[in-house]
């Protein structure tokens, strides 16, 4: 439903007319569902021939007919389930007939359409009409991607093989082609540069998100792999895929009570899984001095009012009672220990009891008292080695011994292919995505120099009645929410996939996001009435696809528009908020310089206000962000926020000797944080240079010392060389004196 704006509603009928006109010429009175498989394929072939027509109007009519097929031939359907079933059937049929490749060629042609670009640049206001062809093509591709990537049981074996072929086509393009995701990122940068203001950004970003989600279950990237043994994506060495014993199951916090989207949920006030009193209820507004400075009375009063109602709806009474989940006693997570934590502990112990240290030696315990032996044993039992640690160690060894270790064997994964393709323009891609995110954020003020992201939602004729204006206003707000949702999902998927593929690929993207001010941008996004954003009602359910295609639409009134749908909260906006919090966590984890940015931008009161949203996963990531900066906020902040400190201790996983609450951590001392980023950047550049820069004249290239083989090499000489060959001999050979005595020095 989010693929279509409400202003695109009349185009459903246009698509149907284009298809039925072609159907009448071919099938003579029969419906699509009445045709046999061979006849359906023949009709699709006729439509594909229309895509190759010279006339623009004829190509558009054929594309609209294909879109009607991908939308489920709703004119022949009785209910929404029928529409979705036929949409799935038709999308597989279209792919089998080669429609995806034909649409890709047309999309490339429309991207390079200079006439459309110059026409849009001359207009004072770009509207839906300027992007008709692009919207139709992107909609067909989106429906194909979404239907083919999702596996449903039961399905024919031919569909399974189609899905595998489709995965390969998207992930592993040919020698001269680029990954499809890169084409979409190029559209984003072209739009942000101002050269193509008519590009429908919402559809491009939604499609980019779905393409990044595509991936066969057997791969670790582009779709991910969920390990049933350790309950997480395969990103740690303790996953059985890597041959190591899994961590204790207690290491997986909150699995039984994390809500799944689009399912009814029990009332859930917070991360309160042990029936403790919610530490954030009835929280006095003036408890935090920083917070009282920044929160005005109106917003705070509204938050208090919203707080009395449960944001997550209760399960209806007629449903059977759910089984009570029994939780283990104690904290809901198992602690982790890094190698560096063991080294720091032993260094402090040796300095105290012996008076000298042994560097990185963690085995020699001579001279240390018995309790220290027990402590080291416990630390080693909970030692956690991530793939990132192994990859960094491998990089250090390759940097030290490039000759003896030889060239690294790089596995050709979809993620590797995409990173290699986007490497040299990656800063521009990140800046473009953040520009659009800034323009779509609800806290952004309209500026003359900001980009126009409403090109694919504004109609040609602006509304003239109050009702039309209300409908367009909701459509614009919904449009912005969908853009925020898709960008947050794209950034999170890129970070997750790249971190699993190689840590320095992840760090490269992270650094460019930080340099492009991603951290203050996300904090600006949360510096609003977040409860109002979570409960916003900018949807008109009767106009959503596929409902609007099979039902007679009731007359819309101002009251029905204001009422919105029956949901007490907006899944879309909750999804966006959680994604942005997870991105912020990934950017700042183990990076003290970036954690200081959270402190400098006064993120603590902003994040604390967001805790009022009573949703478990969102509160967990907020508490993680508060935990990493607690040591920098000072004793007074900790003293006046003991409820938050208590919640962090109860709900967030800690390192076994983590001194997060008191600021005594050796890594938390005010070192030169700029040097930390510079060192990381140097490591990233060394990695990119070693793996992706292949210079022809390398200093490690073998040298041919054989006279015969050197003289026998075929050299390409210019065509006119034989005309001046004698002059060249005279100048370079005969006129140069031969110093025979120099040969004696080399004997």
Automatic annotation (TrEMBL):
Far11/STRP C-terminal domain segment(s): 369-725
GO biological process terms, semicolon-separated: cytoskeleton organization
Family matches, as Pfam families: DUF3402 (PF11882), N1221 (PF07923)
Domain Far11/STRP N-terminal: 1-272
GO cellular component: cytosol
Domain of life: Eukaryota
Family under the similarity heading: Belongs to the STRIP family.
Name the record gives this protein: STRP2 protein
Organism: Nothoprocta pentlandii
Gene: Strip2
